[in-house]
Amino acid sequence: MWTGVVPQQSVVNEEYLTKIEEIVDLCAEYGIYLLFDMHQDVLSTAFGTYDGIPLWFGNQLRKPQKLFSYPFPLMEPPTEWFKNYLTYSSVDCAQKIYQNSTGAWIHWDDFRSVIAERLINKSNVLGYELINESPKDNFYTNPARALPPYMSKYYLLPAYDYLVERIRRVDNDTLIFYEPITYGIFLPVYGNLTGTGFSHAPGVNSDSAAQQKSVLSYYSYCWLRQTGDPSKEMPI
Predict the structure, then answer these.
(1) What does the domain layout of the chain look like in residue ranges?
(2) CA–CA distance, 152 with 156 (Å, rounded to integer)
(3) Under CATH, to which class is 2-233 assigned?
(4) pLDDT digits (tens, 9 = 90+) for 196-235
(5) 138: closest CA among 173, 75, 178, 94?
(6) Where are the beta strands (DSSP E) in 71-153?
(7) Does the annotation mark 233 as catalytic?
(8) Using alpha carbons only, how large is the chain's radius of gyration in Å?
């Protein structure tokens, strides 16, 4: 969705937004409620999937690297898309987003705020999700970044706090959904190794009511946790 809204830097596609509004209004006529998710899977076409972030933004974040260029450390681009999360290039790009390289948070906020401005008066919009299945940071340069609580404390939460504060300048009421690293909830909480790692709801430092307007969003992926035949045990 980000790519559709901001196809070029500082260029908002108003026609795209108008179509989104038309869809929202049509859904309202039929009593359908909507959650606006910033969907991504491995961030970019540069890493073998699709442009969850705009390609121009990804190009700003990526640095040409002869030694660690995509698909390193894999020998060839994987045929299974999720294995792209193992590539150095993809996790390094995620790191630059979380660390606000080249003003990354500003671009992220520009997209989120534009959506909030256009949808603030839509009664069937349940909320905005900051990012779908937030990718891991560069665990090759720091293995601790593979730990969900570490990622949340030092990378996700600072970025989320910033985004929520900015969104609330436009829309103070709509629910905001936020996610930990996906596999953080697969195992029981064990010290600093598992669990979400969030110490507070994003935005609570600037808005004491933030917790009442926030939703912890996560994926269970029950098929990963079961041990039998998934075709028999997975609910349809």
Answers:
(1) 2-233
(2) 5
(3) alpha beta
(4) 999 999 999 999 999 999 999 987 776 555 544 545 543 4
(5) 94
(6) 125-129
(7) no
(8) 18
